[in-house]
Amino acid sequence: MTVMLDMPTLRPDTALAGAPAGTQKPLVVLVYPKVDHEKDYVYFWMPFSLLTIAKPLLEDGRFDVALFDGNQHDAAAWARFLDEHLDRAVAIGVSVMTGGGQISHALEMVRTAKERPGCPPVVFGGPHVAVLPEETARHELVDAVLAGPGQNSMLPFLESVLGRLRRADVPGLITRLPSGELLRGPVNPPRTGLLGAYPWHLLNVADYLRDDPTVASRTLNYVSSQGCVYLCRMCFELTYQRKYSAMQADVLLADVCDLHARFGINGVKFYDADWFVNLKRAVSFCEGLTERDLGLKWAASINPNDILKARRAKLGLLDKVAASGCSRLLMGVESGSDRVLADVVQKDVTRAQVLDVAREIADAGILGSYTFIVGFPGESEAEMEQTYSLIEELRGLAPTPETRVHLFAPYPGTPLYDEALAHGFIPPTDLEGWSRFDYYTSLTPWTSQATVDRAREQTQMRLAPAS
Ligand code: B12
C-alpha cells in the first residue's frame, strides 16, 4: 500500500514515463545554497555533491536536471530560475552542511519557492542531514530528508514522488506523516561509488577555475573518494558511517586529463577527506600523471599515518608525489600534545612522528599545510602551548608550511560531542542555530577570547584575502 504523506503531490501534467513523445522530460532541481565564507576565505568551489547526485539521474534517462549554485547566483537569480523551471520540476533537492550560514540560505530559498503555486516536494540532503536527519525532517519547510549518499537515494525518491515506489522503500528517507510521526525508509547503503566523469555541462566549469598560488593559475577542485578509514574522535566522517570508496587511479587520471583537454585546467585541488587512504592508488596516479607529462600541479589531503605506512612499504611515495607535480599537502595534525593526540583525538600518531613526516614533505619540496584544533574538552593551557610550540617548529621548515588553527566544534554523532556535552556545551536546538555553527567562532563555554585570538594569530596561509 502506498503511504500517503503531507507532501505536495505531483501535478498530473508533469507525470513521468508516460509523457507523450516530443514533450520535455520532468525536471529535477538541485540546489547548493550559498556558504557564508569566513571573512578572508577566498574561494567557493564546484558543488560536487550535486554533480554526484545528478549523474545517475541523467544516466537513467527519464529526467532532466538543472543545478542552481547559490555561491554564484543571488536571490534575484533564484527567482528567475524558478520562473523558468518550476513548472516542469518534480522535486527540489537541497544540499546542506552544518555551519557557514548555508542552512539559513537554504530555508530562504525554499520559502521563496514554496510561495509559488505548485511547488514540488523539497528534499534536503548533505552533511547536515547526516548529522541531524530527524531535526531537519521536522522543519516545516522540509518535505523529506535523504540521509547518506544521494547517488543511492535520489532516483528511488523520485520514483516515490511519482507514486511508483513506497516511500517506506526509499533508502535514507525520513519524512513527516500527517500525524506528526516520522516515516523512515531503509538504511541508505554506506558504500557510494558512481564518482567521476561528472555531467560538467550542468555548470559553467570556467566559473570555478581559480588562480591558486599554492597550486596553479587554472585550478579546479575535485573529489575522488568518499569516506575515511581513520577514527579521529572529532571528525564528521565518523557520523557519516559511509564506507571508504574511491575512484580507481586510471579512471581518475582519465577524468583529470579530460578536464585538462576540455577546460584547460593546469591544477587540481583534491578535497577528499584523505586522498591517500589507498596508497597503491596514490602511487599509480602519480606514475600515470608523470608519464602523461601535462605540466599539471595538484594538491591533496594526507594523514601522517599514510606517510608512515608508505615508508614501511618502501613505496618512495613522496618522491613520486613530488615528481608528478604535487605542490601542496594538507594534513590535519590537530595537536602538539601527545596526550591530546592519543587520548582525546585518537590520531594514532605522536608529535615526533608528525615532525618527522613534515620534514619529509618539506625535503620533497612540497608545501605542507598543517591544521590544528584547540579548545578540546578537558584540554589544558599547557597542552595548547604544546600545539603552538609544534607550529613554531614546523614553521622552521623550508618551504615554510602554512598553519591553521581551528577552534574545537562538537559535531553531533562524534565521540567528542558527548564529551563536550558533559563539559557544559549547550548545542543549538533548531536548524537556524546549526546554520550559525562555525568553528571559526567560539562555540564552547570553556574557550576563552584569548584562546580565540591566539588561534587566529597562528593561522598563516598563502592565499591572499578576498578583496
Ligand atoms: C568543498 C568543501 C567546502 C567548500 C564549500 C563547498 C563549495 N562547493 O563551495 C568550502 C571551502 C567553502 C567549505 C566551507 C566550510 N565547510 Co566544508 N567541505 C568541503 C568538502 C571538503 C568537500 C565537499 C564535497 O564536494 N564533497 C564531495 C561530495 C560528493 O560529497 P558530499 O558533499 O558529502 O555529498 C554527498 C552526500 O552528502 C549527499 N548529499 C549532499 N547533498 C545532497 C543533497 C540531496 C538532495 C541529497 C539527496 C543528498 C545529498 O550525497 C552526496 C553524494 O554522495 C567537505 C569534506 C568532504 N570531503 O566531503 C567539507 C565539509 C562538507 N565542510 C564542512 C564544514 C563544517 C565546513 C564549514 C561550515 C566549516 C566551519 N567553518 O564551520 C565551512 C563553511 C563556513 C565558512 N565560514 O567558510 C563539513 C560539514 C560537516 C557537517 N556536519 O555538515 C565537511 C564534511 C568537512 C568535515 N569533515 O568536517 N566547505
Essential attributes:
alpha/beta; Rossmann fold; TIM Barrel; seven-stranded mixed β-sheet; six-stranded parallel β-sheet; 36% helix; binds cobalamin; metal ion binding; methyltransferase; rSAM_sf
Number of domains: 2
Can you identify the CATH class of the largest domain? Alpha Beta
Mean pLDDT: 90
Bin the strand percentage.
15-25%
Structural class: alpha/beta
Number of helices: 17
Number of strands: 15
Cofactor: [4Fe-4S] cluster
GO molecular function: 4 iron, 4 sulfur cluster binding; catalytic activity; cobalamin binding; metal ion binding
Domain Radical SAM core: 215-450
InterPro entries: BchE-like, Cobalamin-bd, Elp3/MiaA/NifB-like_rSAM, Methyltransferase_Class_B, rSAM, rSAM_sf
What is the gist of this entry?
By secondary structure, the chain is of the alpha/beta class.
Secondary structure topology:
Blueprint: E1 27-32, H1 48-60, E2 64-69, H2 75-85, E3 89-95, H3 102-114, E4 122-125, H4 127-131, H5 133-137, E5 144-146, H6 150-161, E6 173-176, E7 182-184, E8 219-222, E9 225-226, H7 236-240, E10 245-246, H8 249-263, E11 267-270, H9 279-292, E12 297-301, H10 304-312, H11 317-323, E13 326-334, H12 338-345, H13 351-363, E14 367-374, H14 381-394, E15 402-407, H15 415-422, H16 431-435, H17 449-457
Parallel strand pairs: 1-2, 1-3, 3-4, 4-5, 8-11, 11-12, 12-13, 13-14, 14-15
Antiparallel strand pairs: 5-6, 6-7, 9-10
Helix pairs in contact: 1-6, 8-9, 9-11
This protein binds cobalamin.
Cobalamin binds at residues 35-38, 41, 44-45, 47-49, 52-53, 71, 93-95, 97-100, 123, 125-128, 131, 146, 149-151, 153-154, 192, 223, 226, 235-237, 271-273, 411, 438-440.
